[in-house]
Amino acid sequence: MIRVGVVGAMGKMGQEVVKAVCDDDKLELVTAVDINQIDTEVCPPKEVRIMGDLKSAILMHKPDVMVDFTQPKYVFENAKICLENGVRPVIGTTGLSDEQIAELKTLAESKGLGCLIAPNFSTGAILMMMFAKQAARYFDNAEIIELHHNQKKDAPSGTAIKTALMMSEEGKMSFETGNCPETETIQGARGGKSYSDIHIHSVRMPGYIASQEVIFGASGQILTIRHDSMDRQCYMAGVKLAIKYIAEHNEFIYGLEKIM
Length: 260
Hints:
Layout lengths: L1 E6 L4 H11 L4 E7 L7 E2 L5 E4 L2 H8 L3 E4 L3 H13 L3 E4 L6 H14 L3 E3 L5 H13 L5 E8 L9 H11 L23 E2 L5 E6 L5 E9 L2 E9 L6 H11 L5 E3 L6
Parallel strand pairs: 1-2, 1-5, 2-4, 5-6, 6-7, 7-13, 8-10
Antiparallel strand pairs: 3-4, 8-11, 9-10, 11-12
Helix pairs in contact: 1-7, 3-4, 5-6
């Protein structure tokens, strides 16, 4: 039985993770952390109570794996607390910088612990990213549009950033081949430039959960690869896969596609 904790347990994703862990006979929820609704009971009949401090929860309940769905401003410190106290983090919160990811990799390796960071846990979204990487071999122009609910705090999304990174790994220096010199009459109209000059455009709108499309262009043709998440339950199979994998492997992993 894998002992699991959830930090950000009372958020929308956190509540889904708590339920998924409680319903899996190979996982045991031993602690749940959130700065809201402290002392609330979750996972009946186990009666796990919400704690407000991550380190205290780790020391008291000794989870093997801690799943983080909090906020960008907390996730880096949360991950360091986990690793420094012998717990393997599974991180679904986006907003980590390349430098922070590199630092967590170094820390995980120094501690001999597994750590998994996944910008997206949906199987369909991972396939979208993998297909985009494959298509990047054949197109010299590409842009990404990501669309999320208007309560998402970071932009662009971690999924969009990871997609651009995977596309850039195909070796192209730039995905804006042949573009004319541009002047933005409204700042940001062309989105933000990511790896290999891939423009990323972020939309925030009530009604969305998470959607992304990668648009490839060439003379006389357009290829669009799109994924839409309709319900947060679509992420739970990936979350459980990550928990079970990282509990048994001392690896640093960035991207769920590495273990699918």
